[in-house]
């Protein structure tokens, strides 16, 4: 079992950690990439779930040797499809329960590579929004994970030293970002699928 009893703050990734958004994003990005003339394989996306929008678009262009004609339009199409399917969104119960159990005992934050509009909408749709003292998104920092920026910004907003923050993550880039920020962390797969 994980021990974070000496930690002042818990920081949670959102997509794939608190919320099971990857299947909804897979459908949404399928729509977002339609103008490239290349269909996005679902498995390709699931291997890259959690990437920030522009990092994912860079990967799509590189892997499939295509050009996204209009990135703003692609993101708009993706978001519209995402919001059309938000009623399918579910929390990842084991991790959400850790946040609930620590509300009022420790500072709690979300640090997500997603856009604020989507992250906040998803947290509100699943009744998790009010658990968190701070929500930090890609809109708040210059660099996405694996850079430590999101986690350092969350610690700063919580007024807590990085070495007193414990991170819950589901991606390699997120785990690298937490380490780079000087924070202890766990791959949530170890909790969800012990």
From TrEMBL:
InterPro entries per UniProt: HAD-like_sf (IPR036412), HAD-like_SPP (IPR051806), HAD-SF_hydro_IA (IPR006439), HAD_2 (IPR041492), HAD_sf (IPR023214), PGP-like_dom2 (IPR023198)
UniProt feature coiled coil, ranges: none
One Pfam family in the UniProt entry: HAD_2
NCBIfam families cross-referenced by the UniProt entry: HAD-SF-IA-v3
PANTHER family (alphabetical): FRUCTOSE-1-PHOSPHATE PHOSPHATASE, GLYCEROL-1-PHOSPHATE PHOSPHOHYDROLASE 1-RELATED
Protein name: Phosphatase/phosphohexomutase
Organism: Gluconobacter frateurii NRIC 0228
């Amino acid at each position: 079992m994980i021990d974070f009893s000496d930690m002042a703050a818990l920081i949670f990734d959102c997509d794939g950690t608190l919320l099971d958004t990857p299947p909804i994003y897979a459908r949404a990005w399928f729509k977002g990439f339609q103008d490239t003339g290349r269909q996005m394989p679902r498995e390709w996306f699931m291997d890259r779930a959690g990437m920030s929008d522009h990092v994912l678009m860079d990967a799509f262009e590189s892997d499939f040797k295509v050009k996204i004609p209009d990135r703003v339009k692609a993101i708009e199409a993706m978001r519209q499809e995402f919001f059309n399917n938000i009623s399918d969104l579910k929390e990842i119960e084991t991790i959400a329960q850790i946040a609930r159990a620590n509300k009022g005992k420790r500072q709690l934050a979300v640090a997500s590579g997603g856009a604020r509009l989507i992250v906040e909408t998803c947290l509100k749709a699943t009744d998790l929004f009010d658990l968190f003292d701070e929500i930090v998104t890609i809109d708040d920092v210059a660099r996405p994970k694996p850079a430590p920026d999101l986690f350092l910004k969350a610690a700063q907003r919580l007024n807590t030293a990085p070495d007193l923050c414990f991170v819950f993550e589901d991606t390699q880039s997120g785990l690298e970002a937490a380490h780079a920020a000087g924070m202890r962390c766990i791959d949530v797969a170890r909790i969800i699928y012990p």
